[in-house]
Backbone:
């Protein structure tokens, strides 16, 4: 065998070894990616992901959501905040949590105290997923229709139940001072009371109307059309609704494929002062529920 031939053979062997090394490295990378994906490690490639974290402060934004208030969160074009009301509800809340985890996104859950007391482990599971937990009263009564002393009771008992589930402590001081009125029904005095307590009142900018019975496909179409029209906003869903839990994976993929970005709202540091009370809520006549 001549020198040239020997050199060619050597080069081929070395090239083969390099290729094998590359294949092995790729295989290791693939395996670790698969393991990470299976374990739900975030962030990871190809999923929607949470784009940014937005601290919300009662001093500067005491009430947000254009359906009911003149102002909303400072969101950019194609930015959305995902919110879920009325849970926790074992089967469908867990389904919603799985869908959010699969896309590495954080949402905000406004919990009903009574349901939180019944399912404390599920409350902790929501928190463990990195989601924000807000408050939605004790038993979901219409706070505009009951006497003022009962209004305070409904709010405080709801907060206490959620705090007890989360931290094992009974307190009416919420660890996350975010609140949403059942049916968005409020009185000016209650809004003022919440503001004086440093609690942000969340309305919504758009919703899926998921209190109405419809197929997941129809709900997806409806919320996607509304989002396209609005371009951004706080979106309201109800996680106890099976149709919403069923629709959620497709909706999150829709957000990813259409370049929407998920913003995760969290409480700001305690404020030093409270600003003037803004205008009251709009008429509820335009509400669909
Ligand atoms: Zn509700």
Residues:
């Amino acid at each position: 065998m001549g020198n040239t031939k020997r050199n060619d053979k050597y080069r081929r062997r070395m090239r083969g070894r390099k290729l094998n090394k590359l294949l092995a490295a790729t295989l290791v990378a693939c395996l670790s990616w698969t393991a990470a994906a299976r374990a739900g490690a975030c962030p990871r490639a190809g999923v929607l992901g949470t784009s940014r974290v937005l601290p919300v402060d009662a001093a500067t934004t005491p009430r947000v959501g254009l359906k009911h208030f003149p102002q909303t969160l400072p969101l950019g074009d194609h930015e959305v905040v995902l919110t879920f009301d009325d849970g926790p509800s074992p089967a469908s809340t867990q389904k919603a949590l799985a869908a959010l985890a699969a896309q590495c996104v954080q949402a905000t859950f406004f919990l009903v105290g009574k349901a939180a007391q019944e399912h404390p482990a599920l409350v902790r599971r929501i928190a463990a997923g990195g989601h924000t937990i807000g408050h939605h009263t004790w038993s979901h009564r219409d706070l505009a229709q009951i006497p003022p002393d009962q209004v305070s009771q409904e709010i405080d008992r709801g907060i206490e139940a959620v705090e007890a589930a989360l931290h094992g402590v009974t307190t009416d001081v919420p660890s996350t001072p975010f609140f949403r009125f059942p049916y968005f029904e409020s009185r000016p005095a209650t809004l003022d009371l919440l503001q004086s307590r440093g609690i942000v009142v969340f309305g919504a900018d758009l919703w899926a109307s998921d209190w109405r019975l419809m197929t997941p496909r129809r709900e997806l179409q409806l919320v996607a059309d509304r989002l396209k029209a609005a371009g951004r906003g706080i979106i309201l869903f109800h996680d106890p609704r099976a149709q919403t839990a069923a629709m959620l994976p497709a909706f999150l993929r829709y957000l990813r494929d259409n370049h929407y970005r998920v913003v995760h709202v969290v409480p700001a540091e305690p404020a030093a002062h409270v600003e003037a009370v803004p205008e009251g809520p709009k008429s509820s006549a335009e509400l669909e529920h």
